[in-house]
C-alpha cells in the first residue's frame, strides 16, 4: 500500500510537468494574431450604454466616431474628415468621409449620423452620453456627406466628446438587440466569433477608412484573474494586457515582460459634501486640505506609482498641483483653520470607501484617516461593497467619499457636469458657485485654445482655493506586451485605439 | 401513508429545500445594494435623468413589484424556462447545460484525487500510529486544510508558467469533444488544487476510522487466523472504515461546488461556479437565481445518492 500512494502523487506531478514539454499545443507558432488578456467579458456590446472598461476596449475596435483623439488626446478627424464652427459658435458643419461602410457592407452617410445623434439625445434610449449633447438643439443632414449640429450656445468641448465610443455612429435602422448579437460598426475590426465569458475574436476590416489594421486577428480572451493573465503572458499564450494594480505590474515586469506606465486622466480624490455642516465651512475644508500630504497617500497606498495632482489631469490643460492654499502638508495651519471654524477641540467626519472596485481604495482611506487624526480630525470609515458604495455615492449620501473618478480630455466634459449648478452630477459633487458657473460658460463659449487654457486655470484655482474637494493623485495603467508586439501607443484615457496600428513579430 | 416511506419523504424534503433556496436567493440578491442599472453603469448611473433611469429599469424588468417578479420567475422555472442573460441574451438553461458538466467533471476528478491522496495518506498514517510517518501525514493533512485554494492555485499556475512555460489554462477552454488531451490538462491543475484541499479532511476521517477498525475484535480475530497484512487491510479494515469516509465525501461535495467558484476563476474554467460569480458581479438576477437553484438541486441529489450508497454498504442502516 505504501507504494500506491507514492505512485499516485508521482503520476499526478509527472502528468502536469511532462505535458509542458511536448503535449501542449504551442500558442503562437503559426499565427501572427494578437491575444489580449482581459479580466472580464464586456457587459454589453451596445456602444451607447457601455461604460465598463472591458466593453469599451472591444467596442472601440468595432465602431467609429465622428471625431477621434490622437495619442496626445488632441481632437483629430474620424468619420468626419473636417468641420467648421460658425463665427457665433452655434453651428458646427461636419463633412463626412466618403466610401465608409458598416461591417455588413451598407454605406455610412449623414442619415446614419443624424439618426444616431438624435437617438442618443432621446431619454428613452438610456444612452449614457446624452448629456454630452445637451447643447445640441437640432441635427440636420442637408446632403449625404454633410451633418449640421445646431447648438443652444457655443460648446468648445463637444468635439472631444464626440470621440467617445458612447457616441458611436450606428446604422439608422439598427436596434440594440440586433447589435448585441451582431455588432455592425465602421471601426477597424469586425467581429468574427464570440463565446460569452470566454473570448471575442475580431478580424481586420479590410475596408476601414484609414487602411486595414496589420493584425490578421485580434482576440480578447477572458482570464478572470490579473495574476493568471501574467502567467498566461509568461507562457506566451497571451501577448497583450492592461493592468491597474501596481503589484501585478511589478510581477509582470519582474518576469521579463515589457511594461509601460501611462499616467491616467482618472484621479483619486477625497470628495466633500459641502452642502451640509460642517463641510459647508471653508475653514473646515481648508483644514482637511492642509492636513493631508498627498505624496504620503500615494506612497503608502499605491507604492508611489502615480503623480500628485490638482483638479485637471489632461495634458493640455493640466492644473499645477502646487497651486492650492496648502501645497505642502501643514498641520499647524490645519489646526488654525479648525479653530477658526469653531472646532478647536476636534471634529468627527465620516467617509465612504469602496472595497474591491479598485486596488488602493482602503489603503488610501486609512492613510488619510491617520493623517487627519494628527490634526485633530477623526475620520470614521464606512467601507462598502462596490454596489453599496455606488448607491450611496449616486444619492450623494455621504460626508466625504474616497473616490476614483474617470477623467475626460476636455476640462468642460470632465468637470462641467460636476461643478456647474445645473450639471447632472452636481448633487454628487456637492459644490457650485456663481463664479464657477460663469467660468464654465465662458470656457464653453471660447474656441481659442490659449484663452480656454487661461479660463480653466481659473476654474482650477477656484476649486482649489475653496477646497471643493481634496484632489490627491493620478495613477498609472500598465500596458504589458510580449517581446514581439510592436506599434502600440498607450493613451492617458485608457483607450486601446492604437491596436489598429499594432503588429506581432514585425510582420 | 405514502409520505411515511423514507424515499418519498426524502424527495419531499428535497423539494422543500429547493423552494427554500429559491426564496432565499431571490431575497438576498435584491437585498444586496445596487441593481442591474448601477451594476452596469457604476458611478455613471448618477448622470442618468429620472426618465433615462425609468427606461433602463423597464428594460431590465425592475419596474415590477417584487412578488410579481418572484412569481413570474418561479412559474417560468416550473415550466423549464430559467430565463435569459440580459447581457448576452443567451438562455440560462443553455448556459447551465454547458457549464454544469464541466464543473461536475472537475468535481469528480477532484474527488478521485482527494480520495486517492486522502485514503492513501490515512493508511500510511494509521498503519503505524504516532510514528514519524504518522506525524508527516498529519502535517500534510493540516497543510491541506490551511492553505487556501486561491493561494495554492495561483502559486501552481505562476510556477508552472514561469519555469516550465506551461499554462494550458491560458488557451481558450477546450471541450472534451474537440481535444480530450488538452481538455484534461486544463482541468488537471484546478482538480489538483481542489483535490488537495479535499484530501485533508478525508485523510483525517479515514485515519481515525481505520484506527478504530484496527482495534475491533473481528480484525484481531482475522489477524490471529494468520491473514497477511495486505489482505487484512483490503478485505477487513478498509470496508469497515468506508461508512464514515463515504459520509465525509458526500458532505465535501458541497465544498467542491463552493471551491469551484474560486478555482474556476483562477484557472479560467467556464464552469458553473464562474457563471454564478459573474452573475453576481453583473447583478444578472436570472442567471444567479437559476444557477444557484441548479447547484442546490445537484447538491440535494448527491446527498440523496450518498444516503442510498450508505444503505448499500452498511447493513445496519438498511435494517433500521
From TrEMBL, chain B:
Gene Ontology cellular-component annotations: plasma membrane
Pfam families in the cross-refs: BPD_transp_1 (PF00528), BPD_transp_1_N (PF19300)
Domain of life: Bacteria
MF-aspect GO terms: dipeptide transmembrane transporter activity
Residue stretches spanning the membrane: 12-32, 106-127, 139-164, 184-203, 240-267, 287-310
Gene3D superfamilies membership: MetI-like
Entry annotated with the keyword Membrane: yes
Record keyword Transmembrane present: yes
Residue ranges occupied by any ABC transmembrane type-1 domain in the UniProt entry: 100-310
Principal location: membrane
UniProt keyword annotations, A-Z: Cell membrane, Membrane, Transmembrane, Transmembrane helix, Transport
Localization in the cell: Cell membrane
Topology in membrane: Multi-pass membrane protein
Family, as annotated: Belongs to the binding-protein-dependent transport system permease family.
Protein name: Peptide/nickel transport system permease protein
Source organism (scientific name): Pseudonocardia cypriaca
